[in-house]
């Protein structure tokens, strides 16, 4: 079981939109140096929906090769066609990923039984599956009751819960208390309370920018040091907020550019951060101590 701060890694791109492979490798090194506990390759923040299949595969393989087993790699393998999600999971397994992160099928709005059958098929690909529920993006909600059913299947080992609903999270944590099923927050603003309540960590956007702080927050929360966890979280809350000022990963890619970690590259239909937000995000990065 992975615990702690898992970064939902942004994919560095050149101004042309071409993937910057050298910057991607450097970004992995940045996280290895600053305490990140795991990396999601080609998750939502990594823009996989704008990649070719070959690019998606190459991003996963490049990150696996660069990590060299030092921390776990979770491959983003979600798709709204079950056959595609299964094939992505199979490839991620062949590439050496440790787990896959599989989002609920977006746009086609399956029933709860459809979600169950979809994830059952993904699990049969042979790579341990972390379910991913983010209804605001996908248009479909994976109910807790369906998670309980799925957790009984071999190969489904965790959930990234990104609704930000702590009451819902507490029901999950209570149900799985004492089990090996892992629960990760997918919502940075509520992640501190999620982990203090018994979650195993966070799959984080903010960790792209402040990896050590997110690691330290998780360590404090898992140790039950609520005072220390809240101190760190209070300092990070403005950053959590501005990284959602436009659709993820627009603000975080701008932040990485300001930090000198990536060129100003993003792919349509996403666009570079609007000029009107530059000062707000820039000031928050200064307060967080990541730029001067």
Question: Would you kindly provide a written description of the structure presented here, covering whatever features stand out?
Answer:
- This protein is α/β, with parallel strands linked by helices and 292 residues long.
- The chain has a single domain, classed as TIM Barrel, CATH 3.20.20.70.
- The protein has twelve helices and eight strands.
- The chain has helices spanning 21-33, 53-67, 82-95, 112-123, 135-138, 144-150, 166-176, 188-196, 211-222, 226-242, 250-258, 278-287, and strands at residues 4-8, 38-41, 73-76, 99-103, 129-133, 156-161, 182-185, 201-204.
- An eight-stranded parallel beta barrel has the order 1-2-3-4-5-6-7-8, surrounded by six helices.
- α8 runs antiparallel to α10.
- The radius of gyration is 18 Å and the shape is globular.
- The protein starts with a strand and ends in a 5-residue tail after the last helix.
- The mean pLDDT is 97.
- InterPro entries: Aldolase_TIM (IPR013785), DapA (IPR005263), DapA-like (IPR002220), Schiff_base-form_aldolases_AS (IPR020625).
List the helices and strands and how they pair.
Blueprint: E1 4-8, H1 21-33, E2 38-41, H2 53-67, E3 73-76, H3 82-95, E4 99-103, H4 112-123, E5 129-133, H5 135-138, H6 144-150, E6 156-161, H7 166-176, E7 182-185, H8 188-196, E8 201-204, H9 211-222, H10 226-242, H11 250-258, H12 278-287
Parallel strand pairs: 1-2, 1-8, 2-3, 3-4, 4-5, 5-6, 6-7, 7-8
Function: Catalyzes the condensation of (S)-aspartate-beta-semialdehyde [(S)-ASA] and pyruvate to 4-hydroxy-tetrahydrodipicolinate (HTPA).
Subunit structure: Homotetramer; dimer of dimers.
Site (Part of a proton relay during catalysis): 44, 107
């Amino acid at each position: 079981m992975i615990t702690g701060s898992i970064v939902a890694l942004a994919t560095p791109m050149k101004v042309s939109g071409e993937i910057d492979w050298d910057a991607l490798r450097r970004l992995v090194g940045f996280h290895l140096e600053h305490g990140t506990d795991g990396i999601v390759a080609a998750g939502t923040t990594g823009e996989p929906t704008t990649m070719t299949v070959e690019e998606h595969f190459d991003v996963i393989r490049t990150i696996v090769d660069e990590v060299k087993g030092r921390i776990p790699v979770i491959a983003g393998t979600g798709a709204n066609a079950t056959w595609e999600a299964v094939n992505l999971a199979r490839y991620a397994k062949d590439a050496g990923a440790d787990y896959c992160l599989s989002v609920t099928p977006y746009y086609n709005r399956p029933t709860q039984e459809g979600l169950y059958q979809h994830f059952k098929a993904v699990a049969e690909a042979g790579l341990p599956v972390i379910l991913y529920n983010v209804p605001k993006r996908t248009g479909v909600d994976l109910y807790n009751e369906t998670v309980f059913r799925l957790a009984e299947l071999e190969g489904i080992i965790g959930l990234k819960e990104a609704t930000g609903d702590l009451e819902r999270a507490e029901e999950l944590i209570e149900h799985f208390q004492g089990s090996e099923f892992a629960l990760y927050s997918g919502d940075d603003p509520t992640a501190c309370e999620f982990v203090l309540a018994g979650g195993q960590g966070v799959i984080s956007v903010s960790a792209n920018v402040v990896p050590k702080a997110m690691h330290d927050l998780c360590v404090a929360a898992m140790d039950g040091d609520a005072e220390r966890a809240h101190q760190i979280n209070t300092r990070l809350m403005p950053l959590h907020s501005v990284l959602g000022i436009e659709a993820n990963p627009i603000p975080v890619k701008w932040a990485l550019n300001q930090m000198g970690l990536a060129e100003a590259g993003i792919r349509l239909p996403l666009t570079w951060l609007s000029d009107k937000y530059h000062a707000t995000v820039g000031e928050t990065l200064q307060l967080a101590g990541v730029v001067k």
